[in-house]
Design a protein that fits this description.
The protein is mainly alpha-helical. Helices cover 72% and strands 0% of the residues. The longest helix is centred in the last third of the chain and has 17 residues. The two termini are 20 Å apart. 25% of the residues are buried.
Amino acid sequence: LAGRKRTGPLTEARSAAVAVLHGRGHSYGEIAAMLGGRDRSTVRELATRGESILAATPELRTLSA
């Protein structure tokens, strides 16, 4: 997840992970550092996308609780 590849499944997994981490209280800056030094604004966008993915996939929402 910390890599730079942008293939479909990886970006979705990365987005969902960011949303879960942010939901558990980690700041965007902390998450950015965990993901290899990404920019906070990029991580914020990933969290927004991840929330949509989690909302659309109930199985993932259950795992993230």
